[in-house]
Design a protein that fits this description.
single chain; 32% helix; 7 helices; two-stranded antiparallel ribbon
Length: 225
């Protein structure tokens, strides 16, 4: 933990999140250099280091929660594939009673803990691949399940969708922020809100992404080819 924390503090800068200034994160100023560093001693299993940036889907979801606090107020929250922890932090600032952030990257887990401390909130960080588990397996009852920008690869999308549908069938409210990623399974979701998010062109090749906040349909429709 100490070495990872030192690495993050040394190579990232604490700054407010664009569009969500209520939240301060450790953020990379130059993505390629950090990516190269994490290929060495601090290699991430899923480069680029997702925990070092506020991605569009998570940014929009965090903004939505802060603008619509009744969505999570008085509820427990599960932030899936949490990255920097932005969505979990925003949910606590919006009045959630507790937040569990799930990640598989040890550097992300450390970044979440540092970011939580920076924002004076407490997040339970679970370093585990939970996608084949149920909410009961995780010891959670009736949480709001949140996922920002998780449909970026075919295999990840398939596994995440299965987890989210299972959570919804078990009674969870499931919200997702997605900026039109190629593998987003539209047929299983209902759109709630859209928001334009400024993004870093070196990561997204554009300066703005339009993000939609969705609620999953518990039973869903069959995905069409």
């Amino acid at each position: 933990m100490t070495d990872r924390a030192s690495f993050i503090r040394s190579h990232l800068r604490r700054s407010p999140v664009t569009l969500v200034p209520e939240v301060v994160l450790h953020q990379a100023e130059e993505p390629i250099g950090l990516w190269e560093l994490t290929e060495g001693e601090y290699r991430s299993d899923q480069p680029p280091p997702f925990w070092a940036f506020a991605w569009a889907g998570g940014t929009a979801l965090a903004r939505y929660l802060l603008d619509q606090p009744s969505t999570v107020a008085g509820r427990a929250v599960l932030d899936l594939a949490a990255g920097s922890g932005l969505v979990a932090i925003a949910s606590l600032k919006a009045g959630a009673t507790s937040a569990v952030a799930v990640e598989i990257d040890p550097l992300a887990a450390t970044a979440i803990e540092l970011n939580a401390a920076e924002n004076n909130v407490h997040i339970e960080v679970r370093l585990d691949d939970v996608l084949d588990q149920s909410l009961a397996d995780l010891g959670l009852s009736d949480p709001v399940v949140l996922a920002g920008d998780v449909f970026y690869s075919q295999d990840m999308s398939r596994r995440v969708l299965t987890f989210l549908r299972r959570a919804a069938r078990d009674g969870a409210d499931v919200l997702v922020g997605d900026p039109g990623r190629a593998y987003f399974p539209t047929n299983y979701f209902t759109a709630l809100h859209t928001i334009d998010v400024p993004v870093r062109p070196e990561l997204e090749s554009v300066t703005t992404r339009t993000v939609t906040i969705y609620r999953i349909n518990p039973r869903g429709a069959a995905a069409r080819p």
